[in-house]
Amino acid sequence: MKPPVPGWVRIISRAPVIIPTATGDGIAETIYKDVPAWQDPATGEIYLDGEAREILDGVKARYMGILLPGQLRDLRNAIGTTQRGMAELLQLGEKSWTRWETGVERPSRSMNLLLCSVYDGKVDVNYLRSMADPAMRSQFRRWAPSVILDAPSYKYSESYKGWTNASDALAA
Q1: Which ranges of 41-157 would DSSP assign to H, the alpha helix?
Q2: SS3 of 86, please?
Q3: How wide is the angle at C-alpha 107 spanned by C-alphas 157 and 150, nearest 5°?
Q4: Is the pTM of this model over 0.70?
C-alpha cells in the first residue's frame, strides 16, 4: 500500500474507541484497539487512514450491539429481498435502509434492537410481513429467501393469518 505522504512508514498503533453512554451525553468507557496506521518518521505524527477508521467503527458497533453494514446486507440477502423491500418490510424510507447498509449512517438504538432480533431469529420475518401495509402484503409472497438463516420461520407460510386487531375482536 502506498503511503499518503512519501517517506511515511506503516505501523500498528493503539487507538482509543470511545463508547458513549446509553443517552449519548457522555462517555461510558474507552477501550483500545491496535490498528494499522501511517507514521511520519521525522515528527512521529501518526495518521489513521480509512482502513483503521473502519476497524475502529466496527469495534464500537460490536461493543454497542449494533449490526455492521455487511451484516445488514447479509440479513437482507437471507430474506431474499431488495433494499426497497427491506424498507417496506420495516416501514421506513428506502434511503434510510440504503444508508445503513452502505455504512453512511447507523440505525437508531430501537431499530437496531429490532434488526438484531430478526438477525438472531428471535423475531419472525413473517410476523413483520403480517404487520406491513395491507396494500403491500401481496408482494411479500414473492420474497422467498435465497438463503435460510438457521430458522425455518423465514419460509413463507400459507397458514399464517397475521395478527388479529384487538378492536376487531372487541367489535365482534
Answers
A1: 50-64, 69-79, 83-90, 94-102, 109-119, 125-131, 137-140
A2: helix
A3: 35
A4: no
